[in-house]
Specification:
The two termini are 39 Å apart. The chain is α/β, with parallel strands linked by helices and 288 residues long. It folds into 2 domains: 186 residues, no CATH class; 78 residues.
Length: 288
């Protein structure tokens, strides 16, 4: 199930919200409640959006939504809007690639950072009606942990919604409701939530950013139309060209709207994965 609206479950809003310096207290408290990592350590972390390194040209490029780098941990944060075959394998590919980089760059195996994946899921994946599912390598009968190098969490946002409407309103449930409801005024209360809500309201309501999401949806339709037309005519080159032009046009529209909304250059680069030179060229073209 995918919710196509302006809630925090929208992938673009999610990235902008998590990368924003204005939501640091909210992110710190939320990740602490999920993982148990101290808030003091989490406050020192750096949030980035990046492509994971590849070893050679034949390797696939691994893209992850958000990386949080800490002294002892590397945390991958993903928004999964829709379930599909291969999703778990894709997410496992992210964390194992991160773990491999840590092992190669560390001077000893003892000092290797622990890898944590936090997945916010807009669908039911597991049997129990839990909000937080924790996975790690354990012995089947005794339950003993083999290691803590890789651990993953899946946050079932549909169960969050169900518990909230059943009057289960503990702190974690309230914080996670910010992902899935547009009626965010009911979530106000306390400095952390109020600051997070103000930033989310800016991302949701600013006219240029709202235009960005509408245009992205329109570009998706245009992209699909081009591909369908080329396929119907049996034009292999047309399909490839349509895909290339569709991606380029979508990125250009996205960047232009972000610039009009006066978003920070580094935030734009993190979200769109363009480089500084490409961003400067687009700036010149619209005289920003």
């Amino acid at each position: 199930m995918e919710i196509r609206n302006k809630t925090l479950s929208n992938d673009v809003i999610f990235k902008a919200f998590i990368l924003s310096s204005k939501t640091k207290k909210y992110k710190t408290r939320l990740i602490h409640l999920i993982t148990g990592i101290s808030e003091e350590e989490l406050l020192k972390g750096e949030y980035t959006s990046q492509e994971l390194k590849v070893n050679n040209k034949s390797d696939k490029v691994y893209k992850t939504d958000i990386i949080l780098s800490l002294k002892e941990y590397v945390i991958s944060i993903e928004m999964n809007g829709q379930a599909y075959n291969g999703l778990i394998e894709k997410n496992f590919g992210y964390v194992t690639r991160i773990a491999g980089e840590q092992l190669r760059s560390s001077e000893s195996y003892i000092n290797t950072k622990k890898i944590i994946a936090i997945n916010f899921d807009m669908f039911h994946m597991y049997k129990k009606e839990k909000i937080v599912y924790e996975f790690m390598m354990r012995e089947k009968e005794t339950g003993e942990e083999e290691h803590e190098l890789i651990k993953s969490y899946h946050i079932d946002l549909l169960n969050v919604k169900k518990k909230w409407y059943n009057k289960v309103n503990d702190e974690l449930t309230k914080m996670l409701m910010l992902f899935i409801t547009e009626d965010i005024d009911n979530l106000r209360g306390g400095e952390i939530m109020n600051e997070a809500i103000e930033e989310l309201e800016f991302l949701r309501k600013h006219k240029d950013i709202i235009g960005l999401y509408d245009k992205e949806e329109e570009e998706r339709r245009v992209f699909n139309t081009r591909i369908q037309d080329a396929e119907q005519r049996g034009e292999a080159k047309g399909i490839a060209l349509g895909k290339t032009e569709g991606r380029e046009e979508s990125i250009l529209i996205t960047v232009k709207n972000m610039l009009k909304a006066k978003l920070d250059d580094n935030l734009i680069i993190s979200i769109t994965n363009i480089d500084k030179n490409e961003l400067n060229k687009i700036k010149k073209s619209i005289k920003v």
